[in-house]
Amino acid sequence: MREPGPARRSLRELLLLCYRERDAERLRVSRLLHDEIGQVLSAVGLHLDVLRQEVRDRAPEIVGRTAEIQSILEGAVRQVRRLSYELRPEPVERAGLGVALRQLADRYRPSFAGRLSVACPNPAPLPPAVALAFFRIAEQALDNAVRHSGAARIGLRLRTGKRRTSLEIRDNGSGFDVARTRRRVRGLGLLLMASYADDAGLDFTLTSLPKRTTIVWVVYRAGARPAESDNGGGDKL
Ligand SMILES: Nc1ncnc2c1ncn2[C@@H]1O[C@H](COP(=O)(O)OP(=O)(O)O)[C@@H](O)[C@H]1O
Ligand SMILES: [Mg+2]
Predict the structure, then answer these.
(1) Average pLDDT in the 229-236 region?
(2) What is the pLDDT of residues 69-124, one digit of tens each?
(3) Same domain for 113 and 225?
(4) How many domains is the chain built from?
(5) Ligand 2 centroid, distance to 119 Cα (angstroms)
(6) 21, 132, 145, 234: which could form a disulfide with 171 (CB 3.0–4.6 Å)?
(7) From CA 35, how far away is CA 27, in angstroms rounded?
(8) Which residues contact 43 (CB under 8 A, 6 or more apart)?
(9) Is 123 found in the same domain as 221?
């Protein structure tokens, strides 16, 4: 297969950057809406409450007006909350990593004919960026296993301890030539997984044995930049 030229390769890198920047921007805007704008609107509502109490006897006509303003304000608060929620589609922050991974698997079950097993207890508390990286890697790995592997079985397993948490997504499908695929220009999934892991300081290994299996393995070690891992054999990313 012909190697992509530098221009195409940098186009892919640019795409990856855009993708990551979009993720970060959505999170920023979502937090801004929730933490700042939402708080300000709620504070205005409280002031209106106080004002209504104060003018109740002296200026009853104002009481009606403040109630109108308050209902407009409540509508705005609801919209801000909804927007903030929609901009943060990952359920990780809301429900925790274990629940989020189980929901992710549920999402894929209807489109997967084989057996999709999930062993994901809620892990010991993880830094939010680490939990999010685990989830995003699982999304890409599961999507690949379902769409590309032709496997009869896919397993998602989270192992959790005090100092170490690991996530494995394994299928018994076609496998693929990782090094060759990496050089191709097409998808972004493999690059995204490595980049999510790198940003969160996770140890990331993708091992694939043609006609047998693909295993994505991610490890977080509390308090230490993870060391290189060795899964033995196979093609690694
Ligand atoms: N679990 C898997 N089983 C078989 N092939 C895979 C698997 N994961 C990835 N691949 C191969 O690697 C390629 C690149 O994956 P990815 O970068 O996620 O891009 P995309 O999914 O958009 O094709 C896939 O098109 C597929 O050929
Ligand atoms: Mg993919």
Answers:
(1) 38
(2) 999 999 999 999 888 877 775 678 778 899 999 999 999 999 999 999 999 987 77
(3) yes
(4) 2
(5) 22
(6) 145
(7) 12
(8) none
(9) yes
